[in-house]
Amino acid sequence: MTTSYNENTDQEVSLTPPEQEYIVELLKDDFVCTQSASSSISTEEDVELLEFTEASENIFEISLTGISIVKGQTKYNKAYVSSKALYLDISLSWGSARNILSLTIYSPTGVSYGAYKPQSGSNSIVLRVRPKTGTYLQGGYWKLNVFGASISGTEYYTLKAAYHT
Question: What is the pLDDT of residue 6?
């Protein structure tokens, strides 16, 4: 049994079945994970709900472009992933490689993966999330939180995600 925070009632609730484990893998050699998976989830009032649209028969995708962020700011994004998703690809890119953004992924039950940061001199993070066991990702709302770790002025970023069925 897993305990998670229910945002709608401001209470902890017991969830069944237990959290499925995921593998977050690198798609390009340009990131550093600064934290391993944990069971904590933060609450946010300014969560942007993103909607996947059908790109092809087996791919559903979202894209946010030109979103501004400053140092110390977190942009909270939530997107519904189908229970028939085989894996989830996520890409975060921004203008200046001198600025550092990080990405933390939360499964529907609140387990976090990350924060992921780029290697020095890179301005992107590209990841794939897939089940450690079983065939499908857990269906439900996944959070993709972007944090302005080290930014001079204002940075603009693009966040893309696609799940494959």
Answer: 44
For 119-151, b/e burial (b = at least 16 CB within 10 A) is eeebbbbbbbbbbeeeebbbeeebbbbbbbbeb
* Residue showing tokens 């975060």: 92
Distance of alpha carbon 98 from alpha carbon 118, whole angstroms: 11
Phi and psi at 156, nearest 5°, equal -115, 135
Chain center to CA of 14: 23
Residue 147, helix vs strand vs coil? strand
Cα angle at 125 between 104 and 111, to 5 degrees? 20
Closest by CA position to 32, among listed 142, 164, 149, 158: 149
Q: What angle do CA 36, 27, 63 make, to 5 degrees?
A: 95
The tokens describing 2, both together, are 């897993």
What pLDDT does 56 receive? 85
Min mean pLDDT across 33-42, 43-52, 114-123 is at 33-42
Q: How far apart are CA 159 and CA 93, in angstroms?
A: 7
* pLDDT tier at 49, thresholds 50, 70, 90: confident
